[in-house]
Design brief:
The protein is an all-alpha fold and about 500 residues long. Helix content is about 65%, strand content about 0%. The chain has three domains: about 1-45, no CATH class; about 150-320, no CATH class; about 325-465, no CATH class. It has helices at about 1-5, 25, 30-35, 50-60, 70-90, 95-120, 135-150, 155-185, 195-220, 230-245, 255-265, 280-285, 305-310, 310-365, 385-420, 430-445, 455-465, 475-500, and strands at about 125, 130. α14 (about 310-365) packs across α16 (about 430-445). The chain is elongated and about 110 Å long. The N and C termini lie far apart (about 70 Å).
Length: about 500
């Protein structure tokens, strides 16, 4: 996309472009990036996961091994064939795919609605006078969270990462210092002198002091004042660090639980937004959807707002966002359904129109009427007479029409099911055209069989290379016979060389 901007390509369409990360990769990005580019948090994406390219790669991956030693042309040809098959398979299964997405959207909508219904029965202690939770409150909290975290720059994020590294080193050194002092009082246990022991302890203390000075330098910078001399903030930072590792390495769950336990023991009266998910287990962790409230990175934000501290508010925010995405998904599915039906009807009409045109040309030639030249006459068909050219093209179009009709018949059940559930009355014209097409398909052949009379099928297949022998259809017995004959010839050749040696 950078090339588009550098070269001013498609400049008039830039306003239509929208960028986002794929959902399965979004959570490896920092929270500020997610607010701008995660499809689950932004308008217009529906429930799309953005993983179409990954699915295409998965479909092509079986070619890796057999094409390892192939030539460049063979690789390109194999990829082209595989892509053609992938596209054809996608078209044939399009209604099934749309119906699955529709059912998934219904399921997500039901889950989110149940969450909001449950919260609507609870009192909202964040408002005065207290009332029950309402979706508008969750939406306001989401906007406040976005505004708050937009104000946290990348520089602040970098300083936070530096503090985490310092605190982790500091904790390790404290543990080593007290372990050395309490358990290794005798220098003989070090297999060293008492002077070496004191030198090690002094080195640990010096390094601790150095880390402390670095931490103080960062704490004095803008936006980090709240961390200075604040044990709670330090523990929240370490807890946030353990949480951020969870998406990449599930084995860090134990570390996360340990740090969370330490935090709530020191600050039992503090409300944490992750309290509903503690203690975290692997089974629960792997069951979290990618838009679960747990991934809302408000754990370390220096904010006491409801969106940062109350797990119920965070659950409500996630449910509201999910319902908005589901509503967009229904709209996108309705559009895709109309496009699919429109393509099916238009392609069928185009084939029948061209076939009717060619049939009319053939009838004129049968009646010995002069027909002006057209684009079909310019096609190269060897020594085919003019009328037979039309018949060959008509036969091919008839084959394609039959295949298309069979596919539309496969589509019909899913198309009708989807239409009854996700289309407004204003689109009724699409349904009428579809029903008309299905009626024509089920009535049978739109071309009289007599039109095809007189075509030499063997010559037609030769010209069109329909039965071009690529070796794929060769019989196994014939191949074995050929190989046996080849081996016998080589054996006879070696025998002749033995009986008639060349003169020196």
């Amino acid at each position: 996309m950078l090339v588009l901007f550098q070269r001013n390509l498609l400049e008039e369409h830039w306003g239509l472009l929208k960028f986002g990360t794929s959902v399965f990769h979004a959570y490896a990005h920092n929270w500020l990036c997610q607010l701008d580019y995660n499809p689950r948090f932004n308008i217009g994406w529906g429930l799309s996961d953005g993983e179409g390219l990954e699915r295409l790669w998965s479909d092509l991956s079986p070619l890796i091994s057999p094409l390892r030693y192939a030539t460049r042309n063979h690789r390109l040809a194999s990829i082209a064939h595989q892509l053609a098959h992938h596209n054809q398979k996608g078209i044939r299964k399009l209604p099934i795919w749309l119906s699955k997405k529709f059912k998934l959207a219904l399921s997500r909508h039901q889950e989110a609605s149940d969450t909001l219904s449950g919260l609507a029965q609870k009192r909202n202690c964040h408002l005065s006078p207290a009332v029950n939770y309402h979706p508008s409150f969750f939406q306001e909290q989401w906007e406040e969270q976005r505004l708050f975290q937009k104000q946290h720059t990348e520089a602040k994020e970098e300083r936070r990462q530096k503090l985490v590294a310092i605190y982790k080193q500091e904790a390790a050194l404290f543990m080593l210092r007290y372990s050395t002092s309490d358990r290794l009082q005798g220098p003989e246990k070090f297999l060293a002198t008492e002077e070496d022991l004191h030198e090690l302890l002094d080195s640990i203390i010096d390094h601790l002091n150095l880390l402390r000075r670095k931490a103080e330098e960062i704490e004095r910078e803008e936006g980090m004042a709240g961390v200075a001399n604040d044990e709670e903030a330090k523990l929240r930072l370490l807890l946030w660090d353990a949480k951020s590792e969870l998406f990449i390495q599930a084995k860090i769950i134990a570390t996360y639980n340990r740090r969370y336990s330490k935090y709530i023991k020191k600050f039992p009266n503090k409300t944490s937004s992750d309290s509903a998910d503690y203690p975290l287990t692997y089974d629960n962790f792997v069951s979290f959807p990618l838009d679960h409230r747990f991934w809302n990175d408000s754990l370390y934000s220096h904010s006491k707002a409801p969106w940062a501290t109350d797990p119920e508010v965070r659950a409500g925010i996630t449910a509201c966002l999910t319902i908005r995405r589901v509503q967009e998904e229904f709209q996108l599915l309705a559009q895709e359904l109309c496009r699919a039906m429109g393509w099916g009807v238009t392609y069928y009409k185009k084939l029948t129109e061209v076939m009717a045109y060619i049939s009319g040309r053939i009838l004129r030639l049968d009646e010995d009427l002069e027909a002006p030249n057209d684009h079909i006459n310019t096609l190269g068909f060897g020594r085919f007479p003019r009328k037979h050219k039309y018949k060959v093209v008509l036969r091919e179009l008839h084959r394609r029409l039959t295949e298309h009709g069979a596919m539309m018949d496969e589509w019909h059940e899913k198309i009708s099911w989807l239409w009854d559930r996700c289309q407004p009355q204003g689109n009724q014209a699409y349904q009428l055209e579809w029903d008309e097409m299905m009626g024509n398909i089920r009535r049978g052949n739109p071309v009289e069989p007599a039109v095809f009379d007189g075509v030499d099928e063997v010559q037609e297949e030769t010209v069109l290379e329909v039965d071009l022998d690529d070796g794929e259809d060769a019989e196994a017995g014939l191949i074995a016979e050929m190989e046996t004959h080849h081996i016998d010839e080589r054996s006879e050749g070696r025998a002749d060389d033995t009986d008639n040696p060349k003169d020196n």
